[in-house]
Amino acid sequence: MTILPFLSAGWIFLAGVYGLVTSRNAIHAVGCLAVAQSSTYVLLLTVGYRRGGTAPYFTDTPLGTRVVDPVVQALALTDVVVGATVTALLLGLVMQVRKRHGTVDPDALTGLKG
Amino acid sequence: MVRTADLLPLAVAVPLFGAVVLAVGGRWLPRVAIDALATAWAALEVAGLAVLWQRTGDGHSVSWLGGWYPVRGESVGIVLVGDRIGIGLALLAGALVLAVVVYSWRYFDEPPVQHAGTFPALILLFEAGMCGFALTGDLFDAFVFFELMGAAAYALTGYRIEDPRPVQGALIFGVVNSLGAYCTLLGIGLLYARTGELGLAQIGLKLAGHHADSLLTAAFVLVITGLLVKAAVVPFHFWLPDAHAVAPTPVCMLLSGVMVELGLYGTLRIYWVVFSGPHGIAPPHLRATFVAAGVLTALVGAVMCWQQRHLKRMLAFSTVGHVGLFLIGMALLTPEGIAGVALYVAAHAGVKAALFATAGVLLDRHGSVDEHGLYGRGRDLPLVGALFGLGGLALAGLPPFGTSLGKAVTEHAAGDRFPWLPVVFVLVSAATGGAVLRACARIFAGVGPRPREHDDGTETTGSGEAPEIRDPQRPIPIPMLAVPAALLCASLAAGLLPGFGSALAHAARQFTDRTAYTAAVFGHAVTPSAPLPEVGWSVEGVLLALASTALAALFAAAAVWGTGLPWHGVGRAVRQRVVLPLRRLHSGHLGDYVTWLVVGVAVLLVVMAA
């Protein structure tokens, strides 16, 4: 097991966070959130990886074949569903922000403060 | 007859099913039918949870979903576990949802034409997420319920999409909370990599066989990050006032009353069951860190609460202050601390929801929640003013409200360990209660000089909010007054009924017993051995409670009448040097809030690894 995939998961997460912090466009920010989330897919799939393992389907492979962990794949799928819901909801909110405020720049959207 | 174990999944399934029925059926049903259906559904959920609370008693209710029971200590199934703290929180959520559904009977008189059932459906979906989160015994399920609760809450916050502010607050709420949730998921991934398990009890058992190292610390910090964001612990709290200031009032009642507290519950549940084992995170280390975080949160919340003129924002910061106090109590890691906090949370939920509900009446009448702009305009609403003032006193800890008893028990537990902590409790309760009393005196009695109405650009004023009801001429709907009155009565009852405190004392002992939880998951009952904490009125507690109430009244009086007094100059200097920079940190900027989240995670990593 190499440490590289774990490091890349961390890197992807930080890239997403960097984008969120410096974002000048709310749609871009939601995209960055999705980038940060995709680090969780990488991490989960890394955790379940087994060298030389094949996909965990036993319809045409004999029982006892070396397979990767199916649990993390189920987790990643659930995670994708959660992420899609949240991204869609947030993009919907950004659309409304654009309609009501006429801008999607977080620097201009600081009406709630103090 | 339903088996006790089946009541656990039903607690999640009932509101989920209700949400579907309301969302689909809402297209054809008339308004009255939708309200009746939503109320019936919320009442059914409360009834189910009450039976579950009664039958679980001082043990655990365990349900392996789909019959995937463990075989020789191994299981691939997903488990729901209820003890009285978890079930109690679900029950609290259920009771508040019922109150909210009744409160909003006439609240949104003009729902979007095609989707009349959407609002109660979202509320029930939110309830399903909260109940599932409180009852799950599985870490990944906790994440899923956490996100379900989150997504429903973002949608509810931005429900009035035609207004500019709610959509903005909901966006910040959604982005910050989701980012926190993904941190949690990264942590869950690391724990799974280490142990190959997802159940809380199973991970805890497997971790006992490993030595504590930096991976464990990193996993712990990442897992609790999302929960601390939800719990609005400084510096993860920035989203909360923005979301609470703009969310529809019924939604604020739920967010402040129970959702935020669920974040703390999750943190401590996961710590006890997973990380408190022999090779986990050492209790003294955790205690020091979390008590420090709690004190910081409580003080920031209290100072910011005092500064607000936007009523809902004021109440939101008061929640931050109280969450700090709850965190201190829970971080003591003693049954007494947990029992006190449980009582405090239950009573605080009633009081805070009642305060939001009365603020909703003002919003309804005057289209404003600005303390300065509303000066004297509440004189024609004496009943509302009485409820608001009583809520302020209860928040400050007036005996015999449950907030006062909960504060006294927690204070006592905290004072045993750190003798200076009761001072924090008294000051924070007095400042948050005092801010409410100050607003109450100005709005409903019109006392003191008229405050300035202009805005110097550093704050959110609260004027020009869209009223949530379109016809201010009609009389106040009865539920909008009956619900806050009932909530205050419930909070009073929490302090007066001795059986409630003793039930929570048993529950707290059970909650802090790791062995009993783990054994229950695998089908064995273990009687906890720790001594039962004492939950009841004491002379010291009553005196401190009276002191904080008097101090709150004093603060309010000084703010209303004291502008010409000699200490006014000192106050201005403090405001310029300390308070103004703190207020400027709450910039409303998404990037800033994300930066603070990252800083918080980094600090926690360094502190926990030290």
| N- to C-terminal distance of chain A | 49 Å
Mean pLDDT of chain B: 89
The most extensive contact between chains is:
A-B, 42 and 51 residues
Helix/strand order of chain B: HHEEHHHHHHHHHHHHHHHHHHHH
The H/E string of chain A reads: HHH
Q: What gap, in angstroms, lies between the N and C termini of chain B?
A: 54 Å
List the domain count of chain A as a whole number: 1
Largest sheet of chain A: none
Query: How many distinct beta strands of chain A?
Result: 0
Rg of chain B (CA only): 23 Å
- Regarding quaternary structure, how should these chains be classified? heterodimer
InterPro entries (chain A): CPA3_antiporter_subunitC, NUOK/Mnh_C1-like
Pfam families (chain A): Oxidored_q2 (PF00420)
Keywords (chain A): Cell membrane, Membrane, Transmembrane, Transmembrane helix
Main location (chain A): membrane
Please, could you describe this protein's structure?
The complex is a heterodimer of chains A (114) and B (610). With 114 residues, chain A is mainly α. Helix content of chain A is 65%, strand content 0%. In chain A, helix 1 (4-22) packs antiparallel against helix 2. The mean pLDDT of chain A is 90. Chain B is mostly helical and 610 residues long. Chain B is globular. Chains A and B meet through helix 1, helix 2 and helix 3 of A and helix 5, helix 6, helix 9 and helix 22 of B.
